[in-house]
Design a protein that fits this description.
The protein has about 325 residues and is of the alpha+beta class. It contains 7 helices and 10 strands. The strands form 2 sheets. It has an 8-stranded mixed β-sheet, covered by helices on one side. It has a two-stranded antiparallel sheet with strand order 1-4. A hairpin with a 5-residue loop joins strand 2 and strand 3. It starts with a helix and ends in a 14-residue tail after the last strand. About 25% of the residues are buried.
Length: about 325
């Protein structure tokens, strides 16, 4: 457009004004050019940072112990992104991890394989990004330890430093027991919601007060790293006005296009149910299926008591 304007001015008799205009156009072109270069630089920089954080680049698996692989996710920032106003009394909970593909070497170089259980409270300033945990645990595969206590203490120290809070670890070869079944709402006949993202307006309540234990195996959300589906069984235990089960299932299915970390999804479900429904108590657990040998089971509750572990047949 600028060049066309220049050519249109070539017939003017005011050479001085033309030179001024031409100089201005050159400056304008330079500004556009350098602005374009700066934009390209920033886009490239942000993409590299995103890849580094979220793992969308080719992965080189570590061959030796490296705790710097671990990536913390700021809970406060993620809650602010969901407009969750949180303090220590908003809810209680914990994040439970089951790591099935975990191994190290004894002093003779023989591999030892165990299931690693990790649990920490939901009020830690940070939680660990799952792919970075997978790579961190992989970095221990060729390291020698004299006892289970030594490797447990190392992992405990590294993770507590990362999340800025306490955690518990357990090494075992026994899978945890499967808990009694809750009432499944999967067979209900519903219309699939048309919304492109989560819609809490789908939730409806009735006047009757009840105590209920419900579950669905139809839940999935999208991984913010890869956009692949994260499948989960959702368990809901509540007291208060009866939540319409069809509306609850429709609401949970509306997460199918939602990108969020496991912990985020559970907290949003919890807050939405408390905000829309008139409940006196609420416990929610999401049992996500394993990816990369790791499954995450976040629990959120209004009750400050010992929160049990539920294991499903799909785990």
């Amino acid at each position: 457009m600028i060049n066309a304007f220049r050519h249109g001015m070539l017939g003017t008799s005011d050479l001085k004004n033309f030179r001024i205009l031409s100089k201005f156009c050159n400056i304008y072109d330079d500004c556009v050019y350098y602005n374009y270069l700066f934009h390209c630089f920033m886009v490239t920089k942000l993409r590299k940072r995103h890849k580094k954080l979220m793992g969308k680049q080719d992965i080189t698996f570590p061959t030796k112990y490296d705790k710097t692989i671990l990536i913390p996710i700021d809970r406060t920032r993620e809650r602010q992104n969901l407009n969750i106003e949180w303090n220590d009394n908003t809810f209680y909970g914990k994040d439970q991890w089951t790591c099935y593909e975990f191994s190290w070497l004894n002093l003779q170089g023989k591999p030892i394989n165990k299931i690693l259980y990790i649990s920490y409270p939901s009020n830690t300033p940070f939680f660990v990004e799952s792919k970075s945990l997978k790579l961190y645990l992989f970095s221990l595969n060729n390291e020698k330890f004299s006892s289970e206590e030594d490797i447990v203490q190392l992992i405990k120290n590294d993770l507590e430093e990362l999340i800025k809070g306490p955690l518990t670890l357990e090494l075992t070869n026994k899978a945890k027991i499967i808990s009694p079944e809750f009432h499944s709402i999967d067979s209900l006949c519903i219309d699939i919601p048309n919304s492109v993202d989560v819609d809490s307006r789908l939730l409806k309540i009735r006047d009757k007060k009840v105590s209920a234990e419900l579950k669905t195996s139809l839940f999935w959300s999208l991984c913010p790293v890869t956009a692949q589906p994260d499948w989960a069984d959702i368990f809901i235990k509540y007291e208060g006005k009866e939540v319409d089960e069809e509306s609850l299932l429709s609401y949970l299915i509306s997460y199918r296009n939602h990108k969020g970390f496991h912990e985020q999804c559970v907290e949003k479900i919890f807050i939405d149910l408390l905000s829309v429904c008139e409940l006196s108590s609420l416990v929610i657990q999401a049992n996500f299926l394993r990816r990369g040998g790791i499954e995450i089971n976040p629990i959120r509750s209004t009750i400050n008591s010992e929160l049990g572990f539920i294991r499903t047949a799909r785990q």
